[in-house]
Fold this protein.
Amino acid sequence: MTPRPLAPSVFLALLAGGRGTRFWPLSRQSLPKQFLPLGGEKTLLQQTRERFAPLVAAERTFVIARAEYEGLIRSQLPELPPENVLVEPSPRDTAPAIGLAALEARRRAPDALLIVSPSDHRVSDPEAFRAAVTAAVLRAGEGGLGTLGVEPDRAATSFGYLRTGPAASDGARPVERFVEKPDQETARRFLDEGNYLWNAGLFVFRVAEFFQALAKADPGFAAGLEALESARESGRENEAEAAWARLPATSLDYALMERASGVWTIPLKAGWDDVGTWAAAEKPLSRDEEGNASAPDEEGGAVFTNSSNSSVFLGGGRERGPLPVLVGVEDLIVVSTRDVVLVCRRDRVEEVRRAVEELRRRGRDELL
């Protein structure tokens, strides 16, 4: 079924300022993971924009990122008007970035409704995804701050959770509590109880209600955003940068959602994954009989001999590195670039961050 475009008052904000350190060494400070294809033809940012395109026009789509990524955004999403790339003067986490998008949406339409999405997720069923987004937009028109909570298919410990109450007639569930990433035993209990959803960082709300709720939850933060907007409208760039620097560097969950009343969620079942680690990136790859995969999957890819359940990611173009040849190994993830070869056990991919921290400690910034 062809999705219907949402109302002209609906805007979309794509968050694209992250560094993606867990996807090192392909993800670097100059080219983080949202600007990489990671096994597909299109980058994660392009896939995200494409997923929302039938619902929200390019003229009402914002991308929020730091200035150094502005050129990448314009080249990957040329259909976006130049003024729709909202530049963060400095990285301040998701709450200020979303505040920046909310200010821009309010300036264009006083009755604006804003959808907020990270730009580094994967979705295998885009139609189901768009149906859930549409349901959330309809629910947001009635009030409250909304999220899309992913129905869990495993006892994941790498996601935060939403504890929810009984569903209303439109499918929305009240959010009773935001829960930090649990340990394995707690995650299994959440799965058994059935009233927990993954917190995917997908938000939907009327912009006016966002500012009202923020003024109650954190008056200083709300006043800081208004000061930022006043300085920007008057062309006082130095004051605007100073106002931005005074905003708290925090997530929207901490700044607002955990403190607000009337928060609700629409359950999302659409083959969602946040592509948070190399183990997640390998899921869609085609595998041989021994469970091995190479990306890109082409002639001249990785060589596997007496090896099993391993994945190899090859840098492309100028980033192409040595050809990996795996002999007699199993359960490995290998990433080969022009200057680094990462070899990691699949069950230790979360520790890639530690390698990045160690390189930073050694002053090897050219590798970061």
Observations:
- The mean pLDDT is 93.
